[in-house]
Amino acid sequence: MSHFALQSNNVIIDGEMIAACVEIKDELIKAIHQYGQAVSCEVQDFGDQVIMPGLVDSHVHINEPGRTEWEGFNTATQAAAAGGITALVDMPLNCIPVTTTKAAFQEKLDSVDDKLWVDCGFWGGVIPQNIGDLDELLHAGVLGVKSFLIDSGIEEFPPVEAKDMRAAMPILAKHDVPYLIHAELDCGSFNDVKITKEYNTFLESRPKKWENDAISLMVDMARESKENGDNCKVHIVHLSSDEALDTIAQAKSEGLRFTAETCPHYLTIASETIPDGKTLFKCCPPIRENSNREHLWQAVTDGRLDFIVSDHSPCTPELKHIDTGDIEKAWGGISALQFGISLIWTEAKKRGFSLVDIVRLMSTETAKFAGLDSVKGEIKIGNHADFLVFDPNAEFTITNEMIKHRHNITPYAGRKVIGRVEHTFVRGHHVYQQDEFINAPKGRPLLKGKL
């Protein structure tokens, strides 16, 4: 159906929840009408359920090609659709080859055919060896690039140093794309911590100082870039340490193009509640104490943190060492792509947030950050007809059986949440309805300059 309309008493448009009818034609939003107005096409009425812009998740590890036993485009984008995500941006690792050259990027693009249930953009990577290839990689259509300041866990994606970033940042500024940074610096002296099955020993091995020092370095790099006339966009991924929030606020106050994100696991789990030997909770940087969690929520409230993304980072159950409980050997990463909005809404609602706020934090701002805001992130005329239909009062318990990503493991199994995605539309195509996928994959790649 290429011409139809959706209506509800609760539609989030331009920062407000209103009764409205949204007319869709040829994958785009054609018009916005008053609720109940006669239109020359079929109308689906969702009553009091909330029609929201599709979510945009700018931090997802899909691992294809090369490590598809960990995840893949088909399963990851199904999980996204089930979570109301209509566009995501794939990370440049842990695929093989890593997305650090134009040729590697083309391999990734060749692997997505007929597998995308939602639209998908791509980040490239910066490593010491590929600075000379950056311009070509950016011209090929990646939306920005990412680096690690610490061991990434895979040999083919080594960390950068200040000299590498100095060489990369003018190129990124020329293309006006963000530089995403995994901000941990191994400051030493913590390597003596013996990691046992106790979660707290892992937490002690990756202290806040690692993040704090890395973020201070990145503020210095951003200042230097601005002084040089480049003013490169710098972005801190998956912030965990509350002690770095003042540094981020200072960078913003100086007019640096400096942003930061956090993730559902840092906002919904406290380290005190993690049972020993439960390797599914391992991620880097680690989940910290409840007081830290509350400070992150304050930063989401006051804008020091810009938005919320999943950092879906799956692997095989074997790599998680679930049976042995060996936290030290377990791969670090949280799998929860499809549950983000329910997890966040459950916690945010208690704190006085509205669904309008959730749209801003998980759709509008993420679309803007990734350079997709000309077509994604808001219900407005001319945008892609991307929607999720949400029941904000439905309660359910997350189970392994309902998981759509490749391996049905998640640290959230058994958790009760409020708010359920009932339907997902990607560019007007109804792709998900009440736990069922509809038709065939309709997603497409989102390339810079070719949206």
From TrEMBL:
Specify whether Metal-binding is a keyword of the entry: yes
Q: What UniProt keywords apply to this chain's record, in alphabetical order? A: Hydrolase, Metal-binding, Zinc
Names of the cofactor(s): Zn(2+)
What is the top-level taxon of the source organism? Bacteria
- Entry keyword Plastid: no
What Gene3D superfamilies does the entry give? Answer: Metal-dependent hydrolases
Can you give the residue ranges of the Amidohydrolase-related domain? 50-429
GO MF terms, alphabetically ordered = allantoinase activity
Enzyme group, top EC level? hydrolase
Pathways involved: Nitrogen metabolism; (S)-allantoin degradation; allantoate from (S)-allantoin: step 1/1
Query: In the Enzyme Commission scheme, what number(s) does this protein have?
Result: 3.5.2.5
Q: Which Pfam families match?
A: Amidohydro_1
Say which family it is in: Belongs to the metallo-dependent hydrolases superfamily. Allantoinase family. Belongs to the metallo-dependent hydrolases superfamily. DHOase family. Class I DHOase subfamily.
Q: What NCBIfam families does the database record attribute to this sequence?
A: allantoinase
Describe the function of this protein.
Catalyzes the reversible cyclization of carbamoyl aspartate to dihydroorotate.
Which proteins does it associate with, and in what oligomeric form?
Answer: Homotetramer.
Q: What is this protein called?
A: allantoinase
The species this protein belongs to is Thalassotalea fonticola
Q: The organism's lineage? A: Bacteria, Pseudomonadati, Pseudomonadota, Gammaproteobacteria, Alteromonadales
